[in-house]
Specification:
Layout lengths: L11 E3 L5 E3 L17 H19 L4 E2 L2 E2 L1 E4 L4 E4 L2 E3 L4 H22 L2 H5 L2 H17 L2 H9 L4 H26 L5 H9 L5 H21 L1 H7 L2 H4 L10 E4 L1 H4 L21 H4 L20 H13 L6 E4 L1 H4 L15 H23 L3 E7 L6 E2 L4 E12 L5 E8 L5 E3 L5 E4 L3 E12 L6 E11 L2 E14 L1
Antiparallel strand pairs: 1-2, 3-4, 5-6, 6-7, 8-9, 10-12, 11-12, 12-16, 13-15, 13-17, 14-16, 17-18
Helix pairs in contact: 1-4, 2-15, 4-6, 4-8, 6-8
Amino acid sequence: MSKAKLEDIPVNVVNNQGGFEEISLYAKHRKLYPRWINGIFNKWRIFFVVATQLFFYGMPWLSINDRQALLFDLAQHKFYIFWLVFFPQDFIYLTALLLMSAIGLFVWTSVGGRLWCGYACPQTVYTEIFLWIEKWVEGDRPARIKLDNGPLDARKLRLKAAKHTIWLVFSLWTGFTFVGYFTPIRTLWQEATSFGLGPWEAFWVFFYGFATYGNAGWLREQVCKYMCPYARFQSAMFDADTLIISYDTERGEPRGRKKNATTRTTGDCIDCTMCVQVCPTGIDIRNGLQYECIGCAACIDACDEVMVKIGSPKGLIRYTTENALKHDYPESDFWAHIRRPRVLLYGGVLLLVTLATVVSLYLRQPLKLDVNRDRGTLSRETADGLIENSYRLQLQNASENTREFIIRAEGLPNLQVVAKDGGRFKVKAADMVDLGFTLQTDAENAQPGSHPVKIIVIAADDPATRTEAKTSFYGR
């Protein structure tokens, strides 16, 4: 990592009068005007922006089994993820998903550096989209600088109003889509078009829309530099074999705009600053690896384009590793150096968590049963001389079909289930029922004290689909 700039360090210094003078925590912010650049990595960025946004904006409208394919229905306490239905009791799967995402990011960062930041991070993606809109309305870098530095005339007002209007509309649609993952989006659309949005839905649409507008339209690189924690702890996952964007100092220095035709007096870098002009965070990659670098490779595209124009080989700025840049091994041997302890450790943990989650999902029962005994009374004797205990049963049907079930009980001789419809009941798809029932047996079979019993719920159409729960029966 490069050394921090002096103006970024909070210090107190002694002035000429013997007093203290404070240096600001951050350098004064200056607006960046990233230049548009063509190149292979820019095409990859466009691909990932389009792919991620097609998923984000399109997925809420996809239906499976007559319901939204991806929906986190907080009001009904149900999470629908394609063909799976989860209830709050399945929180362990959310924990596993978060673990896999975090460890996967560790693995990826150890191998490929900040490629996630450069191509798929939401902040990067939305900043890129907002820059596209800005370029489309105001023009490329020189035109935008000229417009901002020019007088406030009718043309400037028109262009600025058009840009911010498009930004706001896009941001509100983004907020609407985000809320559509928690409230069925078709219902949300009907409410929005009839101006009948509930207070919470309206709040989150505008809140997330405002966050998108502020972060991607105004803060931009400041989010990556000052607010994102990943930028601060990424160095803990880097090593000398991590793939990073690097400037080849040996080949590029000394910099100069001209080269003698017969005697080489300068390096390949002509000091055109194109690598700085295209950088979305405004850094100079020639100063070495910096935490502000998001790995987007815009500087590589820009430098390669310049190298072609001056007749020099591409790759003055390129993806490489620290050890390869020091000639410890050829750059073509990068893949051979992936199998190192850090990567193997992260990869092994990721594999274990993923396998455990997959196996658990495969063995997951579609039924979840909970039986609670009525604690108000231990037991009572019926008019027929039978001993009776009362219970409440909760059954969750995590399948996509409405099914009929039968209650059975085991544990004592002649133990009978007394319930409505003979203990038969239906549970809708992805729904839960709560019903009461009693267990009865002869007095001689239920001696005083507690007796362990088992409540069994069986699917009427498939006896192999069953679940059970243990409880107690009290005799008199």
